[in-house]
Amino acid sequence: MQQYRYTITGASRTVEPASMIRRHASQASSHVLASSSSPMDAENASSYDPKRDARFLQALDEQNVMLNDQQLQAVRHGEGPLLTIAGAGSGKTTTLACRAAYLIAVRRVPARQLLLVTFSRKAADEMKLRLAGLPGISTTTAKSIEARTFHSFCLQLLRRRGNQSAVLGDPGQQRMTVKRLLREAGTTLDYEPETLLALLSSYKCRLLTASDMPESSTAEREMKRVLIRYEQWKAESRAIDFDDVLLLAHRMLSEDEQLLATLQERFRYVMVDEFQDTNTVQYEIVRLIAGKQRNLMVVGDDDQTIYSFNGASADAILSFDKLYPDARVVTLSVNYRSSAAIVGLGNAIIRGNRNRRPKTLTVPAPREEAASHSSADGEVAAAAASDSPLSHAAAPSAALAGIGAEMPAASDDASLGTIGKPMFARPATSEEEASLITASVRKLVESGQYRYGDIAVLYRSAGSGRATIENLLQAGIPVEEHGEGYSFYESSLIRPVMAHLRISLHHRDKQAIEEMLPTLYVNRDAGMKWINEQESERAKKWPLIHLTNFPRLQQFQKDQVLERLRLIKAIASIRPATAIRRIRDAFFDKFAETNRGGTPHKELMKELLDELETSAGRFDTVEAFLAFADEMAKRQADARDKQKQERYTASAAPETEPGSVQMMTIHKSKGLEFPVVFVVGATENIMPHRSATQPQQPKQATTPEKAAREKEEAIEEERRLLYVAVTRARERLYVSSPAFYHGQKTDISRFLAEAGGAPHPANRSKSAAGGR
Ligand SMILES: Nc1ncnc2c1ncn2[C@@H]1O[C@H](COP(=O)(O)OP(=O)(O)OP(=O)(O)O)[C@@H](O)[C@H]1O
C-alpha cells in the first residue's frame, strides 16, 4: 500500500523531556535555599518546621521533581484561597498533589482533613496513586485522603443521609422516557430527546429548574411542559439523574446547617483540579464546604475548557480572584511535559482564541545554558536562525510552517522523524491515515524506544477514530479503547442500518428484525410477540411480512412494511455502500433526524452515517462487509475482556508489559499525557467539527449578533480541543489531516493553517475579494 511520509515541521532543536527533568533534578537541593519563594507562609504557620520543609523538597528532588519558584509558592501556601492558573503540562496537578502531601508531611495536617476534587474517576484513582508515591505519604495515608469526583462525593453524601434513589446512569433510558413523554404530550413540533435533556441539564447546572425555563414561544412552552413532566416522572419513580445528585447535595448543604458545619470542620483544606470545567452547582458546593476555613485551592487552565456543553464555563476560573479578593494567584508558565517544539505548536494554536487570559508557555532551560526558562517560541525562532534544513520554520507563529501545502507522496516507509519535533502528514483518506499510523506504531515499538502502552491515538469523535482503531486491530496491535464499550457498528444509531443489511441476507434473523422495528414505528416487544406468534402458526420465508396483518398497524404502516421488504430484497446483491445510501435516502436519514436529530446531534449523526458508508465502500458485497463488521466487533470485545482481566490480576510492573495503544476522544484525554501522541483528523469539518462551523440552528440565539457570538464560542472551543490534544504529547507528536473526508476534498484544519501562518481558505478568499 502506498503511504505518505510524515514530514518534519516545527523547530529543529530537540529537547528530550526525560533528560530535561533529570537535569533539573541534579540542581535539586539548591532551590531549597535559593528559591525566591521563601517559606513565609510556612513560617507563619505554627506547625511549620524548616527541617521537615527541606527534607520534603529534597525527597521530591530525588524523585526528579524540582519545583520551580511558582510551584513552590503554591505548595508552601498555608491558609486562605489560592488560584493556580496555567497552561498545559505546567504541573498544575503535580503542584496540587505536592501541596496535599506537603500539608500532611510538613504541616502535619491530618490526611482526613483534605478533600481533593478531580474531574473523572480515573483522575481520582491516579491522584491517590500519585500521592502514595510522594515523600512522607504512606499507602495507608494516601487511601485515607478523600480524592473524589464531584458526583461520587455528592452521591456519598446523599446515601449517608438516607437517600436511596436509583441513579439513572443509562442515557438511553432517559431518552426513551422523554420520547414517551413527548408522544403523550402530543407536541406540535419535533424534538429530539437528547436536545431536551441537554437543555434541562444546562438549567440545572446553573442551579435553575425546569420551571425557570422561558415560555415565550410555542416551542418553549412545549419543551418546558415535557421537561416538567420528566422531572415529575423521576420523582414518582424515585429515580435521580447525575444533575440531581449535585443539586440535591447542594440543597442538603444549603439547608442543613449542622451537616455543613460538620463537613466544614472535617475538610479544612479543599482542592479542586481542572477547575476550568467546573459548572455553577459544582462551584457552589465547593464554596459552601470551604466557606468557613476558606482554604480553597483551585487549579486550572481557561484554555482547556472543553466541556461547555456540560455547563462548564471559564468564567469561574477567570473571576476567582474577584470573588476571593484576598486569593493568592500563582501563574505557572513552564511546561515540563513536552518538547520545546510541541509546546511552541500548542502556543501557536491557542493564540488564535480571543476570549482567553493571554499566556505563553515556556520550557525549562537546559542547565548548561541559562538559569531562566526559555520561550518555546524562542526555540522555534532559534531554529529559523540556524543552518538547519528546517530553518524555513521561521517565525514564532510558524510552528508548523508549510503546513498549508499538501505533502507529496513519498515512500513506502513511514518515517518516524526526530524526537521532540511535531510531524505532519496529509494522507489522501482516513484509511491511508490509519495505515500510516499503524506502520508508525509498529516502527516505534520495533525501535525498542516505546511500548504500545506509551502511545495514544486521539480523535475528535467516535466516527473519526473508526478507521485507525480497525487498522490497528487488523494488524494485531493491542489497543485499549476508552469509549462506550461497543464497536462502531454496534452503536445505537448504526445498528438499525446494519440490521437491514443482515435481513437482506438472513431473512429470518430475529435479532436483526427486532432492531429495525423502531424504524417502522413498531414497538419492539409487541412487534416481535406478534411475529413470533404468527411464525409458530405459519412460518414464512420473510417473517417481517407478518406485520402486514398486525392489527395494531394502520394501513399506511402496513404499506410501509411492504415497501421496506422490497428495499431489503433489492439491497442483498448490490455493493454495501450503495445499499447503505439507499437505506439512508429511502427513510433512515429522515427517521434518524426526526427521532434522534437536532443540533448538534444531527451533525454528529450525519458524520457517523457517512463514516459507515465510507467503511462499507471498501467491500464489494454485503456479506463481506457484515463479516468484517462482526470480526471487528469481536476483536474489540476480546480486547476489552483482556483489559478487564488484566485490571483484576495486574501485579507485574506496568513498564515490563507491552501494554496497549490508548485510543480515545480528545475529551477523554484531558489531564493525561503520553510519550507518543497521534492526533488524527486535523481537517476542516472534523476539527473544527461541522457542528461548530455550520450550526443548523444556533443553540439559543435570538439575534444575528448572538448567533455570531455563539458560533465564535463554538469555534474557540474546537480550537481548545486541538490545543488539549497536541499538548498531551511528551516526546513525539504526529498530526495528520486526510485530504478527502467522506469522499469530499477537505482543507487542513484552519487551526493548524493559522498556527503555521497560512491563512484559512475562508479568510484567504475574503481578503482576496477585499483587495480587488
Ligand atoms: N517541577 C517539575 N519538575 C519536573 N517535572 C515536573 C515538574 N512539574 C511537573 N512536572 C511533570 O510535568 C508533567 C505535566 O505535569 P501535570 O500533569 O501536573 O501538568 P498539568 O498542568 O496538570 O497538565 P494539563 O493541564 O495539561 O493536564 C508531568 O509529567 C509532571 O510529572
Overview of the structural elements:
The chain has 772 residues and is α/β, with parallel strands linked by helices. The protein has 4 domains: 50-162 and 246-336, Rossmann fold, CATH 3.40.50; 166-237, Arc Repressor Mutant, subunit A; 397-478 and 658-760, 3-Layer(aba) Sandwich (Rossmann fold); 490-626, PCRA, domain 4, CATH 1.10.486. 50% of the residues lie in helices and 9% in strands. It has 33 helices and 19 strands. The strands form 5 sheets. It has a 7-stranded mixed sheet, with helices on both faces. A 6-stranded parallel sheet has the order 4-3-7-8-2-9, with helices on both faces. It has a two-stranded parallel sheet with strand order 5-6. Helix 15 (280-289) links the parallel strand 7 (269-272) and strand 8 (296-300). Mean pLDDT is 82; it is low at 1-5, 7-45, 367-375, 377-413 and 763-772.
Summarize the structure.
This protein is an alpha/beta fold. It folds into four domains: 50-162 and 246-336, P-loop containing nucleotide triphosphate hydrolases (Rossmann fold), CATH 3.40.50.300; 166-237, Orthogonal Bundle (Arc Repressor Mutant, subunit A), CATH 1.10.10; 397-478 and 658-760, Rossmann fold, CATH 3.40.50; 490-626, PCRA, domain 4 (Orthogonal Bundle). Helices cover 50% and strands 9% of the residues.
